[in-house]
Design a protein that fits this description.
about 40% strand; globular; 1 helix
């Protein structure tokens, strides 16, 4: 995984400021920090975004801190503000370590997640009990990755679920060709059973998926790989089931031009079946792209919606979100005026998209380096995390557009 280079960031900060000064600011966007991580029991360095429940409570993970191996946490909403609670402190070993993916609400009201280390050495899938007033919550290990052939190191991808309660996810390594996998976990009377649905890494195929997969009504799965494809710059893929066999179709191979390259982010869909995603690098402005894939008669058409001003592999790292109005919200991990990350909105009028800056992180008390998807509550407020900044260990932030 490539992180921002502070020296290069400093060199390009002035030129980026000039480019972004011409962008349209969001009217009356209000930013505030909800929690500043201390690096102690609360955790440190969140490298994933948040999820929000119907009551407005926020859930997330921190990669480090706690006992040294990361934490799962809640920011509980109340009339007086928000209260930070530790849901689980990871202990490494069989328990898992270094969670870098979100907590996802799933069957029976439980929270599901992954760790990138620990378990059998290649990470874990776990859930946290649905006990809202009990802290910490009981953790259950669902699966430990021990065999590279079955996948290894689940990264930053969201877990997903079907109507039967099966769990779907990706690993960034392992599989038959050591290019990562898409896997399924099914509950049996003897516990959870893993099935590798697809192994990446053959010549011309995608490789190294960092994001998770999403499904459609027909049961097909869609996702991205950060590498591989015809130009080696990443792919968008579809997996189609026929009985117990899954076949892959590459919907799009990135060419490293105005389309972008290295799509670490995953996909989201709108009500019409269009897919949206982000590339972390490339594009005409140098800082990655936001793209759309439109289906028609079994063929997908790719279009670049927006090229993010930036300086290399600095752009959107997490999946953009489409709201009910069709507007797109996204973050960059180290673009923006101060090369410390940004959160922005793209509004559509016909075939034209307008960029609205919601916040450019300064690297100070507001945080730095946004490896976080944006997420909404019922009031339309936007939430996320930064990996560092604040007291040096990252923050949880809110923007009210």
């Amino acid at each position: 995984m490539v992180f921002c280079d502070s020296k290069e960031s400093a060199i390009v900060a002035l030129s980026l400021a000039a480019v972004l000064a011409a962008a349209t600011p969001a009217p009356a966007a209000t930013f505030r920090v909800l929690h500043t991580f201390t690096g102690g029991a609360d955790g440190a360095n969140p490298q994933a975004g948040l999820t929000v429940d119907a009551a407005g409570n926020l859930y997330g993970t921190a990669q480090n801190g706690g006992a040294g191996y990361g934490t799962a946490f809640e920011l509980k909403r109340s009339a007086g503000g928000r209260t930070f609670e530790v849901l689980h402190t990871f202990a490494s070993g069989a328990d898992g370590a270094a969670p870098i993916a979100r907590l996802m609400p799933g069957p029976q009201g439980r929270l599901y997640g992954t760790t990138s280390q620990g378990g059998g050495g290649g990470g874990t899938v776990f859930d946290l009990a649905a006990t809202p007033k009990l802290y910490p919550r009981k953790e259950t290990l669902l699966y430990a990755f021990t065999n590279a052939g079955n996948g290894y190191q689940p990264s930053s991808g969201d877990l997903n679920f079907d109507a039967a309660g099966n769990v779907y996810g990706t690993t960034s390594a392992g599989g038959v060709y050591n290019g990562g996998t898409v896997f399924k976990l099914s509950r049996t009377k003897n516990g959870w059973h893993e099935t590798v649905l697809y192994s990446f890494g053959q010549i011309g195929d995608g490789a190294v998926p960092y994001a998770g997969v999403i499904g459609d009504a027909a049961g097909n799965l869609y996702g991205t790989t950060s590498a591989g494809g015809s130009a080696g710059d990443g792919t968008v893929f579809e997996l189609t089931p026929k009985g117990s066999v899954w076949s892959e179709t590459i919907i799009y191979s990135f060419q490293g031009q105005t389309d972008g390259l290295v799509p670490y982010a995953g996909l989201t869909s709108d009500g019409a079946g269009n897919l949206y995603g982000a590339a972390t690098d490339g594009g005409s402005a140098g800082g990655g792209t936001i793209f759309e894939l439109t289906p028609s008669g079994g063929v997908w058409s790719f279009s670049t919606i927006f090229s993010v001003p930036g300086w290399g592999i600095s752009g959107p790292f997490r999946t953009p979100v489409v709201d009910a109005s069709g507007d797109i919200f996204a973050t960059t991990h180290c673009d923006g005026t101060y090369s410390s990350g940004s959160v922005f909105e793209l509004t559509r009028s016909g075939n034209t998209w307008t960029y609205l800056s919601l916040h450019d992180f300064t690297g100070g008390s507001d945080g730095q380096y946004v490896f976080s998807n944006p997420v909404f509550d019922s009031h339309g407020d936007v939430f996320g995390t930064t990996q560092v900044g604040g007291a040096g260990y990252g923050v949880v932030w809110e923007v009210s557009p």
